[in-house]
Amino acid sequence: MSDGLLPATAPARKERVDRELPQEARSWGRILDLTHLEAGDLLLFRNVPPHIDRVAKAIVSAQSKGGLHERHAQWTHAAVYLGDGEHVCEANFGLAGFPRGVIMRSAHCYCDGTYAIRARRPRNMDERQRLRIALGAMSNLGKGYSLGQIFSFWSAARTGRGFWSSTPRGPRFKVRALVCSTLYQDAFNFAYQGTTVRMGSLCTPAHLSASTDFEPSDPQLNWLEIE
């Protein structure tokens, strides 16, 4: 089981980048090599010591109490890779310059030396289906990040529920507010059903890490040193 691409991992090579980059990446001097990723791939994130804050610790603790192994419980955030070589769609809050909710931004915003990053690819999907995951995520742009859904998130973590593959497919409830892992869940179901109605149960980042709905081998991620 991969602990992800660590900040301490040496860059694979140098890369000249002439386009505008997030300040985080420019300051740290590295970007992500996304060459091996495809639209619809999952990206998981976790803070590494000494950058783990109280919120991250609480998420890890709740996921661990749900019976999920620490290799999975360590992941605290999820995003959908859009396949353009740079951008992700994610549900987030408290980000300076961004509204609370579903947004699109550069994956290189996570290139600041404080995150480990893991990639996963849905299994048994062709290129068109994976593209529909990206489109399903984008269809939620602008929807809010709900504190009420956070309580559902904690409940799913504590009880161990959350794998969308563990329940029969069928409409459960419509949502206008999302958290990071349910955004991926809904986009995954969009690829199969073509609807924004959530099907199955809530999931957490740890459930996404542990799920067998992804290929057993992770797509490769590397750092690139900015010339």
Map the helices and strands.
Elements: E1 13-15, H1 23-28, E2 30-33, E3 42-47, H2 54-65, H3 70-73, E4 77-81, E5 87-92, E6 101-106, E7 115-120, H4 127-138, H5 147-159, E8 171-173, H6 180-193, E9 198-199, H7 205-210, E10 222-226
Parallel strand pairs: 1-10
Antiparallel strand pairs: 2-10, 3-4, 3-7, 4-5, 5-6, 8-9
Helix pairs in contact: 2-5, 4-6
Question: What brief labels describe this structure?
Answer:
10 strands; endopeptidase fold (from Nostoc punctiforme); 227 residues; 3-stranded mixed beta sheet; 5-stranded antiparallel beta sheet; alpha+beta
Q: Write down how many β-strands occur, each being a DSSP E stretch of 2 or more residues.
A: 10
At the fold tier of CATH, the topology name is endopeptidase fold (from Nostoc punctiforme)
The CATH architecture can be given as Alpha-Beta Complex
| Overall CATH class | Alpha Beta
What are the segments in which pLDDT stays under 50 over at least 5 consecutive residues?
160-177, 194-200
Element order: H for helix, E for strand? EHEEHHEEEEHHEHEHE
Which oligomeric form is depicted? single chain
What is the averaged pLDDT score?
82
Count of domains = 1
Report on the biggest sheet: 5 strands, antiparallel
What fraction of the residues are assigned to beta strands by DSSP?
15-25%
Helix content range: 25-40%
Alpha-carbon distance between the termini?
32 Å
Major sheet: arrangement of strands: 6-5-4-3-7
Number of helices: 7
Radius of gyration: 17 Å
Secondary structural class:
alpha+beta
Structural shape: globular
Q: What is the gist of this entry?
A:
By secondary structure, this protein is of the alpha+beta class.
